[in-house]
Amino acid sequence: MNRRSFLTLMGGLGIGSALGGAKSASAAGGTFHGYPDSKGVLHDTTLCIGCRRCEQACNKVNDLPKPEKPFTDLNVLNEKRRTSAKEWTVVNKYRLASLDKDVFRKSQCMHCEEPACASACFVKAFTKNPDGSVTYDPTLCVGCRYCMVACPFNIPGYTYDRALNPLVQKCTLCHPRLQEGKLPGCVEACPTGALVFGKRKDLVKIAWDRITAHPERYQNHVYGEHEMGGTAWMTISGAEFKEVGLNEDLGTKAAGEYTAGALGAVPMVVGIWPVLLGGAYAITKRKEQIAKEEQNDAVNAAVARTEEEAAKKLQASLDKAAKEAAKEKDRAVADEVKKAVAEAEEALRAQLEAEKAEAVAKAAEEAAAKAAEEAAAKAAAKPSKPEKGKKGKHDTNGGEA
Fold it and tell me: Which of 67, 95, 107, 342 has the most CB atoms in a 10 Å sphere around its CB?
């Protein structure tokens, strides 16, 4: 149900109830005092350097719109900013003459122990969870923005730029991440330890331990320990809290104790009108749900078609690549076989040449040996002849020479 149709319906039913003189009942009852083991964050402003990494982490983990200026641009700190539908946390700079330096403080949902937004919301769109976070269910919201009016810290933002079904937006203490056992994005990204996550009761002790150990550094107070009944997000500071943009006049009474009385004065129709109101509300929500489901079905069908076409194109590309790879593989195998054959032929030729040379050398050696052997035999078989011109010891006459 959108805001316009809801207010129109409420106006019509309100007139009817006034004319009918119907009875009334309180819109809000008792108070809730928080979960004993709930988690929280302690922000130590003396350690904050204004780097804006917490803002960047918040933007990323919650998939928020990108800012006009990058998170590295620290000039934005020169102007005071508040949280919005697009910025669930902001860091502001405070120039304090008393300390002669700049002090930085991070602002976001305080996650009250007894949230004013939850007390003011008559459709129960806000929930205080056991982990300490305060979360919002957009499917229940009717856009009345009572939560924005009720919040003592002026935190919730509203998507005014959404003509259809605008939403309330705020920090969730990274509830989905807590469910997975992870730290809040801002705490994980802080480079100086200015943000500490843990059980709220432990954080209170840590805060007072720091104040006691260094009284000259801190104010003697933990902001959020008791303000508005206590908050999951607490702050310690060297400067007065009002100097860093925190309201010091909120008191310690929980918001529910205020909103219960205020909403109790609002006549809620008893009798037939609640049935009509509930029925009309349920019918309108059902129509919106059906329209949303039809839109989701159309989107899912389009996505399925796109995925199917993409899968076909991918398979065709893979088949083509496989064929090309097979061809390339065949060519590579053929080249390798050809190369191996050529190398084998070359090796065989070299081996044959070597064997041929060896055979020739052996034949030559054998021929030479045979020739030498024949020459020796021939020489041994030939008779010796006397030398010409020589005479014997006796002459022809028998006398001595």
Answer: 107
Answer yes or no: is 90 within a domain: yes
CATH number at residue 132: 3.30.70.20
146-184 confidence digits (pLDDT tens): 999 999 999 999 999 887 889 999 999 999 999 999 999
Domain count, the chain: 1
β-strand partners of 91 = 106
Is the pLDDT reported for residue 277 higher than 50? no
In this prediction the pTM is 0.60
Would you state the structure tokens that stand for residue 157, as one six-digit string?
A: 């933002």
Report if residue 316 sits inside a domain: no
Q: Residue 337 carries which side chain, given as an amino acid letter?
A: V
Q: Find the domain containing 67 and state its range.
A: 33-254
CA 151, 154, 155: angle at the middle one, nearest 5?
90
Could you tell me the sign of the dihedral formed by the alpha carbons of 251, 254, 258, 261, in that order?
Answer: negative
For 198, residues 6+ apart whose C-beta sits below 8 A from its C-beta are: 39, 40, 42, 206
In a domain, 279, yes or no: no
Amino acid, single-letter form, for residue 112? C
Integer CA distances (angstroms), 65 to 61, 68, 88, in order: 11, 9, 11
Instruction: Check: CB of residue 80 under 8 Å from CB of residue 105.
Output: no
Closest by CA position to 132, among listed 227, 251, 254, 36: 36
Q: Which residue has the tokens 């006009």?
A: 68
Tell me how many degrees the CA angle 161-164-166 measures, rounded to the nearest 5.
60
Q: Is residue 189 part of a domain?
A: yes
